[in-house]
């Protein structure tokens, strides 16, 4: 009987696991939040992932549980584990992706390079940090943020007054130094429960308004030492945090050639979408192989360069599908991926991958093809 | 709303359309013959494709109807068209894939090179053909054959006595000269209803016991002239027969450097499976794009060489999945595709694709990985 992988969450990451699951002969079942979500084709249940009864019933029908997002509460995750359900990544690893303060403390223990940071509970503590860091900092709510939400650059402690006022007893905000980075990078690593890890080449990511806009794989003009350091950071975190499945490590590259860890994600990640068409094993297949503890696939690139451009928002009028003819006739080499989501300003509704032996050509075609959809 | 593609037939060809349909944002619905078939994930109906009521009900829910096989009767196809259903390939084209005598007659009209052939109704007619062709011939039932079934090499007319006796009034068998070929090739072409065609590089196919065993893309050591002739034959047939979607043309290469058409298939075909991992646009995505009349994708190869090896039969004991660990750990670059079918001697249950810049390496890895599954 085919191995059954249960994915909690019905978004585009779950959707993009469907294709490799079908080809590999893994049975994929999705617990979706609602009807008609991105991963609807594989949705065998609809319900609230915070409801232990809903999640238990779903988990009973699969061999391993994994995730489209990191929002399943620890209480639910630990109840599953207590039931004997196989969960990858498990709660011990996921806590570091769910709470940025816990993550910062653990990375410090591991000796992984990261921005200066502190837990702050009031204006005085926050202002003291800012004063010690050239008067600026990045304040983050430790939980629940994504795509720039829950992140604010401040130059005076009062700018975070509302978040400080909303803190529950015993909670704190995370503040980090404002890193003078020259660019952002991302490192993908996969780790299977029995221990093996594989690393993808480090990539350059371009963010706009806190949202990933473009990815270039591998990171252009990256020094060999930098590539090795990024990979080592990725493997150290995957092993140190006990990650199973895909790990994405968002990195800052500074003007003095240091690499600092910005964020983590323990799942396939936007910065790894290029691998669907640009690597021998895409990150969605790799995640599936890892969570069912199969040997990991080759991360070798299929072309010298791969470029991913997000389709953000989608058309102001009409549907994505109406733009297919023009985009495809002009760019027959573009790989168009759509998420089955209605267009809405700023929303990630799809992406375009282009692999090419010429970087300029790949960037041009990926941008030009994606531009047809906005 | 997403374009809805309805596929009649729930086999592995329908299954392998699921992945590109999901990524491209096309809704795929399958009319399967039974529960639990290869394309079960997308099966929205189960029923008999020869039953016009079943097929009509299925067709009512989709924007275009296409096929996993060529066995839907002309009467059903023509009833759909009369209903206003969009059908690709349509009945006028499919008749040439359904009846080899009709195909031979039409290819003769088009001037496409093919083996000598004749329609024969009795022993005398068949013997006369054999006598005129060095005493040998290939007798074929014009309808219903596949994977070597309905094909018999004869050296005396009596060897086809049973088939001749079973002929209905007015029917005939096809007999073809026994071509002294040096190897077999296959040419894939896609054609969209509005007329554009794209061609893949001609590939070499290796048959065992009448079943495709291996494919090498492109065909090694193929003369440039031969590559052009194969492509021209493919385009001539696609246009001359009004094919929409993928067309596969199986070819003989003779020792005097001629190319002769052996068989046709109007759908994705085993000889094109390499393109899933070896071409920018795989044949399953290309078929979908063609049947919904979207611009066709690039057929450029992703690597110098691609090799496909079929998994025939599957393990004598146990399941395919039990062989994954050993196959994957030894061959991380192998792309394993399984069909969700129970192992059975001779049955196509999956295939392995390997793309590599070195042909010997690609052949070795693909064969070695596939060998883990038998």
From TrEMBL, chains A, B:
ATP-grasp domain boundaries: 104-292
Catalytic activity: 5-amino-1-(5-phospho-beta-D-ribosyl)imidazole + hydrogencarbonate + ATP = 5-carboxyamino-1-(5-phospho-D-ribosyl)imidazole + ADP + phosphate + 2 H(+)
Enzyme class name: ligase
Annotated binding of ATP, by residue: 100, 140, 176-179, 184, 262-263
A GO molecular function held by the record: 5-(carboxyamino)imidazole ribonucleotide synthase activity
UniProt cross-references to Pfam families, sorted A to Z: ATP-grasp (PF02222), PurK_C (PF17769), RS_preATP-grasp-like (PF22660)
Transmembrane region(s): none
Source taxon at top rank: Bacteria
Entry keyword set: ATP-binding, Ligase, Nucleotide-binding, Purine biosynthesis
Annotated pathway: Purine metabolism; IMP biosynthesis via de novo pathway; 5-amino-1-(5-phospho-D-ribosyl)imidazole-4-carboxylate from 5-amino-1-(5-phospho-D-ribosyl)imidazole (N5-CAIR route): step 1/2
EC number: 6.3.4.18
InterPro entries xrefs: ATP-grasp, ATP-grasp_carboxylate-amine, ATP_grasp_subdomain_1, PreATP-grasp_dom_sf, PurK, PurK_C, PurT/PurK_preATP-grasp, Rudment_hybrid_motif
Family named by the database record: Belongs to the PurK/PurT family.
Role according to the record: Catalyzes the ATP-dependent conversion of 5-aminoimidazole ribonucleotide (AIR) and HCO(3)- to N5-carboxyaminoimidazole ribonucleotide (N5-CAIR).
Subunit structure: Homodimer.
Name listed for the protein in its UniProt record: N5-carboxyaminoimidazole ribonucleotide synthase
Organism of provenance: Microbacterium aurugineum
Gene name per UniProt: purK
């Amino acid at each position: 009987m085919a191995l059954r992988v249960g994915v909690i969450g019905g978004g585009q990451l779950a959707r993009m696991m469907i294709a490799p699951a079908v080809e590999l002969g893994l049975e994929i079942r999705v617990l979706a939040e609602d009807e008609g979500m991105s991963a609807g084709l594989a949705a065998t249940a609809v319900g609230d992932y915070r409801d232990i009864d809903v999640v238990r019933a779903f988990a009973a029908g699969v061999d391993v549980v994994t995730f489209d997002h990191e929002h399943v509460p620890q209480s639910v995750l630990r109840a599953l584990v207590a039931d004997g359900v196989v969960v990858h990544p498990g709660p011990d690893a996921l806590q570091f992706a769910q709470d940025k303060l816990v993550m910062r403390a653990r990375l410090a223990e591991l000796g992984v390079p990261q921005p200066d940071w502190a837990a702050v509970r009031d204006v005085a503590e926050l202002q003291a940090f800012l004063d010690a860091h050239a008067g600026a900092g990045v304040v983050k709510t430790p939980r629940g943020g994504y795509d720039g939400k829950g992140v604010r650059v401040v130059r005076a402690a009062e700018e975070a007054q509302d978040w400080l006022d909303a803190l529950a007893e015993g909670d704190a905000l995370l503040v980090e130094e404002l890193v003078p980075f020259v660019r952002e990078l991302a490192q993908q690593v996969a780790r299977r429960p029995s221990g093996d890890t594989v690393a993808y080449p480090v990539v350059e990511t371009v963010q706009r308004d806190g949202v990933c806009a473009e990815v270039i794989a591998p990171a252009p003009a990256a020094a060999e030492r930098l590539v090795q350091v990024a990979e080592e950071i990725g493997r150290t975190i995957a092993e140190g945090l006990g990650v199973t499945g895909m790990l994405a490590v968002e990195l800052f590259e500074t003007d003095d050639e240091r690499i600092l860890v910005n964020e983590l994600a323990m799942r396939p990640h936007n910065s790894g979408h290029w691998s669907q068409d640009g690597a021998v094993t895409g990150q969605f297949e790799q995640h599936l192989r890892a969570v069912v503890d199969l040997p990991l696939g080759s991360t070798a690139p299929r072309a010298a360069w791969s470029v991913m451009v997000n389709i953000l928002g989608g058309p102001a009028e009409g549907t994505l599908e109406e733009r297919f003819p023009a985009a495809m006739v002009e760019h027959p080499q573009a790989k168009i991926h759509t998420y089955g989501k209605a267009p809405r300003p700023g929303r990630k509704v799809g992406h375009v991958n282009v692999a090419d032996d010429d970087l300029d050509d790949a960037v041009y075609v990926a941008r030009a093809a994606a531009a047809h959809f906005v």
